[in-house]
Specification:
Elements: E1 3-8, H1 14-23, H2 30-37, E2 41-47, E3 50-57, E4 62-68, H3 76-87, E5 91-95, H4 99-107, E6 109-121, E7 135-139, H5 145-153, H6 157-165, H7 171-181, E8 183-189, E9 192-201, E10 208-215, H8 224-238, E11 242-248, H9 252-260, E12 263-274
Parallel strand pairs: 4-5, 10-11
Antiparallel strand pairs: 1-2, 2-3, 3-4, 5-12, 6-11, 6-12, 7-8, 8-9, 9-10
Helix pairs in contact: 8-9
């Protein structure tokens, strides 16, 4: 088989990446699109000299995206086998919203487990400020930066490590990126920051916007997470955006808050052991 798999810049695959996004059955959230896939190594696949598709491999040597143009898909099993052999791959992170990639992985998988839940908006459940004190919900400004940073740090050391791993210089760099390019909101009760939320408006998957939240450590189990997500959803509705979100499978607190805010998960990211 005349097949080549060579590193390339993500920008050179822009047209194929658009094709990939149009082929999936539910949107990718911004973290997976921009960080997990965006900061992975991109390899162009050529078949008999023709561009056939691409594959992305993260820093843990896991395949996180695999796409072939329609007329080359019948060679999918052979191409994936070649990628696995050439790169020494033993795992893939694959979404159930990506039927082609998923089917190829399942054919070669010895074991799978749920890694992440992908949520879509199911209903507008409204919000009730009466259960809190005096509430304000505003976009974060430069004056809020240090408080926002402290709240992100309170989510655990894993977040800072994750931001570095995915290409941001540090957690502060990540926060500045979201503040400058998207939105971070601050929820205050009686003047005190009790939660922050993000709204990352997709430029490639309109009209979707990825939302998320971080609740201050001593404010958990009060319904704050669900409340700040409801307010962030309202921001999306006002702009004709469709909110989506995700959380890791083991994060029960986030899962409950997300569902309380009217989201339902119909898709998963699976961690698949492949050979």
């Amino acid at each position: 088989m005349d097949l080549s798999i060579n590193p390339t810049k993500a920008e050179s695959l822009a047209d194929l990446k658009r094709e990939h996004l149009s082929s999936i059955v539910a949107p990718l959230d911004a973290y997976w699109e921009e960080a997990v896939i965006g900061f992975s190594e991109h390899l162009e696949i050529r078949f008999h000299g023709e561009r056939a598709g691409f594959v992305c491999i993260n820093g843990e040597n896991q395949i996180v995206c695999f796409y072939l143009c329609r007329r080359f898909r019948r060679f999918g099993a052979d191409v994936l086998r070649a990628v696995i052999a050439e790169k020494g791959i033993v795992q893939a992170l694959v979404g159930t919203n990506d039927p082609f990639f998923l089917s190829q992985c399942l054919d070669r998988s010895k074991n799978t487990e749920v890694h992440t839940l992908l949520f879509g908006d199911n209903e507008d459940v409204g919000s009730d400020d009466t259960v809190f004190g005096e509430i304000t919900f505003e976009p974060a400004t430069a004056e809020d930066f240090e408080e926002v940073f402290e709240n992100y740090c309170g989510a655990g050391d894993a977040m800072d490590a994750e931001s570095v791993e995915t290409g941001f210089e540090d957690l502060k760099g990540y926060i500045r990126t979201v503040m400058n390019n998207h939105r971070i909101f601050v929820l205050r009760e009686n003047g005190r920051l009790i939660a922050t939320s993000e709204c990352r408006i997709s430029k490639t998957q309109e009209p979707f916007a990825d939302v998320g939240m971080i609740v201050a450590g001593d404010q958990r189990r009060r319904g704050v997470g669900g409340h700040v997500l409801k307010l962030t959803k309202a921001f999306c509705y006002e702009r004709d955006l469709e909110p989506i979100c995700s959380c890791e499978a083991g994060n029960i607190g986030s899962m409950k808050a997300i569902m309380n805010a009217g989201f339902v998960s119909s898709h998963r990211i699976l961690l698949a052991d492949i050979t």
